[in-house]
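Fill in residues.
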């Protein structure tokens, strides 16, 4: 597996996939970071255009070269071939190298301007609407709790959060230290004749990343790109430069065997058949050994899908499915017998008829120990 750091040369647009047509809706929002769907498109497009295979041959598998390419990166409606991705993760370049950032875990809360961890509480005198067998989350304080948002640099994440230590104020990076959201207005045009259409004002939200901020992506199943080069990223195919890291960063992965009480934090979104969990509570598919889910710190679902490509497809009622994903930062609290081993499967499921979501970067996660409040 090899890694590349992608840094934009312009503002970026990562639409959330909701259908957007001027006159029907007036605002298109941007996701940050982009979903793995976006980044697999970036990688596959780069491989395709560098291969010299025509789009027609690739779409119809009409030549041996096109067939070999489809075997490598997948084809239209045929999965992702041998391609394997991890990420994307937000990263920042500095003179010391590339530093990864992860979203603030959902079990971190703000208490009187400071940070604390909420934990499952076994003995509690109050009722709860948690599912049967699930424990409420609690922290022992008489001060009001508030939602905490931001990002953790790898040093604070691995050195404090994963070790079970409370975060300090300067450990958390605010979003505006990584990017600026720039709303831009436009108006739909009637091209025959060319003039603005009345009532067709819209707003697009672009992302201007701070200097040195970009995305780290781990790639396998295809040969490394040239050491440096250009890519097209996101909506409107905005330009970006990439650099293949000569010294890859260590992969953020669980340590085996897992402790008796361990939590799983998502680094990228995940999809499950039961909404925020597998159907019939089958968590055992990710572990060797018996585990029980004790609690979950769950933010609001993240809708990810696709939009109408053009008016012709729209007339055919064509739209990529919009699905609700468990967002990055979600924390699942598990309990095992102390000998449970994570089996390496991405922490996600895949809808029937789709290419493997875990193969392209959904369900990346890390584990950490926890104890009762």
């Amino acid at each position: 597996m090899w890694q590349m750091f992608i840094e934009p040369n312009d503002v970026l647009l990562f639409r959330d996939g909701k259908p957007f047509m001027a006159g029907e809706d007036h605002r298109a929002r941007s996701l940050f970071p982009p979903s793995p769907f976006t980044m697999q498109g970036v990688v596959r497009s780069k491989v395709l255009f560098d291969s010299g295979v025509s789009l027609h041959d690739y779409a119809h598998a009409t030549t041996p070269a096109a067939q070999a390419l489809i075997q490598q990166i997948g084809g239209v409606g045929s999965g992702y071939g041998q391609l394997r991705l991890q990420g994307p993760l937000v990263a920042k370049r500095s003179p010391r190298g590339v530093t990864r950032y992860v979203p603030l875990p959902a079990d971190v809360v703000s208490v009187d301007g400071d940070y604390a961890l909420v934990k499952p509480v076994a003995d509690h005198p109050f009722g709860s609407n948690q599912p049967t067998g699930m424990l409420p989350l609690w922290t022992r304080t008489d001060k009001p709790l508030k939602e905490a948002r931001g990002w953790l640099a790898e040093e604070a994440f691995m050195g404090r959060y994963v070790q079970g230590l409370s975060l300090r104020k300067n450990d958390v990076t605010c979003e505006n230290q990584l990017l600026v959201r720039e709303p831009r207005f436009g108006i739909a045009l009637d091209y025959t004749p060319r003039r603005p259409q009345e009532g067709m004002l819209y707003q697009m939200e672009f992302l201007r990343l701070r200097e040195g901020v970009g995305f780290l992506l781990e790639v396998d199943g295809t040969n490394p790109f040239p050491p440096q080069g250009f890519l097209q990223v996101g909506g409107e195919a905005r330009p970006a430069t990439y650099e293949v890291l000569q010294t890859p960063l260590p992969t953020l992965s669980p340590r085996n065997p897992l402790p008796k009480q361990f939590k799983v934090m998502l680094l990228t979104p995940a999809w499950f058949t039961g909404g925020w969990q597998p159907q019939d509570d089958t968590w055992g598919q990710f572990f060797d050994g018996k585990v029980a889910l004790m609690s979950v710190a769950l933010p609001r679902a993240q809708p990810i899908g696709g939009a109408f490509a053009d008016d012709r497809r729209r007339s055919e009622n064509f739209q990529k499915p919009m699905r609700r994903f468990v967002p990055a930062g979600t924390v699942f609290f598990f309990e095992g017998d102390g000998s449970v081993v994570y089996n390496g499967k991405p922490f996600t499921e895949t809808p029937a008829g789709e290419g493997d979501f875990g193969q392209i970067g959904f369900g990346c996660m890390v584990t950490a120990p926890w104890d009762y409040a």
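The two ends are 40 Å apart (CA to CA).
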